[in-house]
Amino acid sequence: FLEAQVVRLPDSAPQAGAVAVFHDLTERKRLEEVRRDFVANVSHELRTPLTAIRGSSETLLGGALENQHYAKHFVEMIARNASRLERLTQDLLDLAAMESGREELVKEAIDGASLADSVLATVGELAEERGVELERELPKESLRIMASRRHLEQAVLNLLDNAIKYTESGGKVTLALTEAEGQTRISVKDSGAGIAPEHLGRIFERFYRADKDRSRQMGGTGLGLAIVKHIAQKHGGRVEVESTPGQGSTFTLVLPA
Ligand code: ADP
């Protein structure tokens, strides 16, 4: 708006129209910046594992193949980075499909208990490996959610995956489902590292990470929460977060019941 004031307009120009046009330009500029940042981020995220794969294969070809111990190390490095690329491209495809608006949500009535069982079974092994206890809390009466099963499972899995990844061994992750006042709340609570207030407002942005090293080490793509937010919005809902550093975080999907 400040910039709009320096634009000289002919006397006949309707002021309101001019301001609106200017706002549109500022928004276009902002979107262009977001797009440029996104392309730069994607390129960077792709290059890191590709460099590791190229480096490892060159080392193998340069002689490391002859030594079984080294050979195993570099082949494992290649496999790990290839999986990383696979996760990243899958996340990017999921985001693109949702942002294009082309993908229709096919909603069905999902039983809360069966959703909880299915997602907890999927992350069971990861939780065990990391020494994190999984708990589930469901209301006494059955709970139904109108949603796309595939998308909802993906959103809850992303939240569970993070909760387990960012919680130390001996910690606990609780998946709780409740229904009240026309809303279904699916919350994932962890007793992990928590998120500092200065990061909290930005973690739903694509590629934003509060702790870059930790995220990379855990194989994170930085896209998980952006995907969760999209899925919530596509269902006419939202995602909330509360966190206390050192004590843990709670992410809640709030959906119209
Ligand atoms: P990533 O693949 O890095 O986990 P996400 O989009 O899923 O990407 O999350 C973005 C960032 O938010 C993470 O890098 C991490 O810093 C922070 N974060 C997400 N969930 C949690 C959690 N349960 N506890 C602590 N930090 C979290």
Automatic annotation (TrEMBL):
Domain Histidine kinase as annotated: residue spans: 41-257
Compartment list: Membrane
Taxonomic superkingdom: Bacteria
Protein name per the record: histidine kinase
Organism of this sequence:
Desulfarculus baarsii (strain ATCC 33931 / DSM 2075 / LMG 7858 / VKM B-1802 / 2st14)
